[in-house]
Amino acid sequence: MSNKISLGVIIGNRDFFPDRLVSEARADILALFAQLAITPILLSEEDSKLGGVETFKDAQKCAALFSLHRNEISGILVVLPNFGDEIGVAETIKLSGLDVPVLIQAYPDDLNKLDVARRRDSWCGKISVCNNLYQFGIKYTLTSAHVVHPNQPEFIAELNDFLAVCRVVKGMRKVRIGAVGARPGAFNTVRYSEKILQRHGISVTTVDLSEILGRANRLTKDDAEVIAHLDKINQYAPKGATPDEAMIQIAKLDVVLNQFVEEHALDATAIQCWTSLQKNYGCNVCTSMSMMSENMLPSACEVDVTGTLTMYAMQLASGSPSALVDWNNNYAEDPNKCVLFHCGNWAKSFLPDIEISNAPILGTSVGIENTYGALDGRTPAMPLTYGRISTDDPKGVIKVYMGEGMLTDDALNTFGNRAVAEIPNLQGLMNYVCKNGFEHHVVMNASKTVGILKEALGNYMGWEFYEHN
Description:
InterPro entries: Fuc_isomerase_C, Fucose_isomerase_N/cen_sf
Keywords: Carbohydrate metabolism, Isomerase
GO molecular function: isomerase activity
Shape: elongated
Structural class: alpha/beta
Pfam families: Fucose_iso_C (PF02952)
Distance between the termini: 28 Å
Protein name: L-fucose/L-arabinose isomerase family protein
């Protein structure tokens, strides 16, 4: 995922500190932004003294500039080369009307430069800026070290994390999810509140499964779209023992699902994947869901809308696909390992040995011949961020739990999409999941991005967030 993004920049200044510090900071930030392909939006040196924000008039000018670029700005960086004007920073953000993440950076002093002509006092100024932002009700992000030079690798890493926070917040506030069909009757676990989601900018577009299947059945194997999608599927994964007739069924369904996504400008989908689909159409939809997830349009099974929302959030944070899985089995006697499993719709990124197959468990009730389209494959060792977003209807809130671990290469003799996860204090995590009424579905992403997600979803979105350590 590209880091090409625009940030508003406020360079704070206080009149009795050396002005050259502002010019030096401006040069530092512009060079860093060029290195990271970030577009800076800040006052020019003609707009205010050295392009800093020192007075209320400066704040007005900077706020007007930000307002002019409100559709471009994903976040704001506050730079404090000296103590800065804490009221000017807060007034700029308030007057701009922007509701975006804000990162506060302050320069360190040099012990050999604490005379009147060279001291910064940014350590103290940062506290004052944060105090004013808190008073104004403006949410903000801090660097790990209280003061840090923008040229230090630690700050560059934190700025990249901040860009990811901006992506998550911007994406989550306008995400559009398609719910295809009704949830399976036996799955109360995936119920959710559309109204609570909508209050947070998350829209759900619904469609009856019969409409999708009806459109798919009107297509023929000779239609150009079906031929094109069949070719894409064959390029995506080996067909294994899947019959040609089933491949055509899968391709026709893929055509219609992609049309639905395009027609409604959807960012993600959650699909009724059993048992109506197998009984009334004759295949699994897993391959199409895997392809969409791989192409950064996450798709969750069993109409798990908040599951696919979690997939989307993790995707925004990491820039890589996510997968919806079951907390499925213990792993022998190891208390910190478990088996993650699903019939077969994980993104190809998780399945180096991917093959189109069938779903043996589902096949026991609907006929194995009606389940072709499920994927088979084992996920190898890789980093793991796991977690779940859920609506808590009795409380009227959105709640989240997330943590980090590892996927391992431990032996696992079974079918479907499968992985072994190692998670510190896994038993404590399962206790938390059960006590707080979370679903048996969890999302995995091959990253270490909990810090980013906690800042975006907990701080800026205001959701209840539990980080498992």
